[in-house]
């Protein structure tokens, strides 16, 4: 089966700086990847390649079987769910449901004079319920908590039934309850849509859903390790990635990190 993502020997240069250095990665159907690394490691830059936002300088990137450079990026992006909780340029007082429905048209605002179909409305309501927001369905965007906004944007990203969900630090700024609700819903998504693959960017292993099965460690634009979590998320490798001795433990599927005692 064609991989969902296939990245081979990719370099990315911006303003004369090598931001990604010989990156290779293959994500297969149903896999859930964590992309980890310290500030400035290149995680968001790599995610912008995986999300068909930018082209590589060298090497090849295939997204859903389409090679970047040979395909209309805008069209390709309409088949991806890319969630960046920091970018929500939603100007009007849209409700949760309105925002989720904009995922059907891949627009930031509802398309004027276009009424959503019954199927779209039903799917929006199903996704809103799946993300635990049924009680907030008609709440206006400005009144939502950060966690509710993040989950609304995930529901929005799922409207076109994407095969790939890209999540850029989805738990940033959430309190413990917000983070745990997010993780619970991501877990539910993974079991509800077994064909869905995902890549989640974070600095914090505590934020990884238990269904995370693969990980890539990035540092200074280079790949330190990539593969099944059992092989990659070890105290030694994660410590090297963040340049600090740590102890990593996993309990009930969740990871905890603390500084290694000397
Ligand atoms: N357009 C650009 N031109 C030049 N440098 C850039 C550009 N975009 C990003 N960078 C630099 O590339 C490096 C990697 O940035 P990136 O945002 O991908 O890192 P990150 O791992 O996501 O970091 P963080 O965890 O802080 O979000 C940083 O040093 C950043 O300043």
Topology diagram in text:
Blueprint: E1 5-14, E2 17-27, E3 32-36, H1 43-50, E4 58-63, E5 66-67, H2 73-77, E6 80-83, H3 96-105, H4 118-130, H5 146-158, E7 164-168, H6 176-192, E8 197-202, E9 214-219, E10 222-228, H7 229-232, H8 235-242, E11 246-251, E12 254-259
Parallel strand pairs: 3-8, 3-9, 6-7, 7-8
Antiparallel strand pairs: 1-2, 1-4, 4-5, 9-10, 11-12
Helix pairs in contact: 3-4, 3-5, 4-5, 5-6
The chain binds adenosine-5'-triphosphate.
Adenosine-5'-triphosphate (ATP) is lined by residues 14-15, 17, 19, 37, 39-45, 203.
The appropriate CATH architecture of the largest domain is 3-Layer(aba) Sandwich
Sheet with most strands: strand arrangement: 6-7-8-3-9-10
Briefly note the structural class of the backbone. Answer: alpha/beta
Number of E strands: 12
Can you tell me the number of structural domains? 2
**Uncertain runs:** none
How many helices? The count is 8
Organism: Thermomonospora umbrina
Keywords: ATP-binding, Nucleotide-binding
Protein name: Iron complex transport system ATP-binding protein
GO molecular function, one term: ATP binding
